[in-house]
C-alpha cells in the first residue's frame, strides 16, 4: 500500500486524487458474496467493475477445464465493487 491507501501498482493508486474521487463517484457500490461469478467470458459487457476491497480470482474455461489466469486485489479493475457504465455492450 502507498500513501493513497491502495496497492501501489493499482489503477486507483496511480490516479491523481481528484481523478480517483471522480471515478469512484461515478459508480454504484455493489457487495457480492464470496464465490459469486461476476463476469463470464463471451457475454456482452454493459459495465466496468472496479474492485475497491477484497480479492477476486480470474479464471478461464476451456471445455471442462478451468484455469487460473490471475488474482486481482483492491484498486484494480476486472468484497465491494463500483459498477461504472461502459458504452458499446461489447463481449468480454
TrEMBL record:
<feature type="domain" description="Cyclic nucleotide-binding">
    <location>
        <begin position="11"/>
        <end position="92"/>
    </location>
</feature>
<dbReference type="InterPro" id="IPR018490">
    <property type="entry name" value="cNMP-bd_dom_sf"/>
</dbReference>
<dbReference type="InterPro" id="IPR000595">
    <property type="entry name" value="cNMP-bd_dom"/>
</dbReference>
<protein>
    <submittedName>
        <fullName>Cyclic nucleotide-binding domain-containing protein</fullName>
    </submittedName>
</protein>
<dbReference type="InterPro" id="IPR014710">
    <property type="entry name" value="RmlC-like_jellyroll"/>
</dbReference>
<dbReference type="Pfam" id="PF00027">
    <property type="entry name" value="cNMP_binding"/>
</dbReference>
Amino acid at each position: 500500500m502507498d500513501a493513497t491507501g491502495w496497492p501501489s501498482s493499482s489503477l486507483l493508486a496511480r490516479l491523481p486524487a481528484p481523478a480517483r474521487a471522480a471515478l469512484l463517484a461515478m459508480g454504484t457500490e455493489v457487495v457480492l458474496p464470496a464465490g459469486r461469478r461476476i463476469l463470464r467470458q463471451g457475454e456482452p459487457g454493459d459495465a466496468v467493475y472496479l474492485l475497491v476491497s477484497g480479492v477476486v480470482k480470474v479464471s478461464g474455461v476451456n471445455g471442462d477445464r478451468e484455469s487460473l489466469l490471475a488474482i486481482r486485489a483492491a484498486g484494480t479493475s476486472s468484497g465491494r465493487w463500483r459498477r461504472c457504465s461502459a458504452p458499446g455492450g461489447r463481449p468480454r
